[in-house]
Pectinesterase inhibitor domain-containing protein (Ilex paraguariensis), 192 residues
Amino acid sequence: MARATVLALFLSLIYIAGTAESAAVATNFIKASCRTTQYPAVCVQSLSTYAATIQRSPKQLVQTALSVSLDTAQSMKTFVTRLTKFKGLKKREYAAIKDCLEEMSDNVDRISKSVKELKNMGSTKGPEFQWHMSNVETWVSAALTDENTCTDGFAGKALNGRIQVSIKARVTNLGKVTSNALALVNNYATKH
């Protein structure tokens, strides 16, 4: 009986040590991959939570980065939708918020298409792989443009400072996450 308990304890320790080592390897892979991005600290922070899923898979890393960008974009769209319901907005503020909402809707659509394209491409190679990756790169790049266009509508002093600051801060974060996703997509595309 004591021998069985000691054996079970020993096997548990080996399993825990292996799991910890695996998590460290995955986290190191994420850190190394994020060095190629414009915002490496944001990249590591946003992807480390998913280290167990990513492991050392470049494709899973890209899928996760796109999913994080999509989640952030959806959250931004929800936030902007709520702003359209604020009472007392000036006509110009309301117009800028509505324009931003349209850009965020396009943004969510483009990143969503990218996530689906990457999932549906399977293990294609050669020209077919490049075609799929070109689609993803185009859509994610267009999503970055949507984000910039949203903030353009809030330029000037005629707008509510709190709304302007709040939207710009959120769009800046979304831009960093999306920029990182695009860098990881581009890196993945060139290595395969």
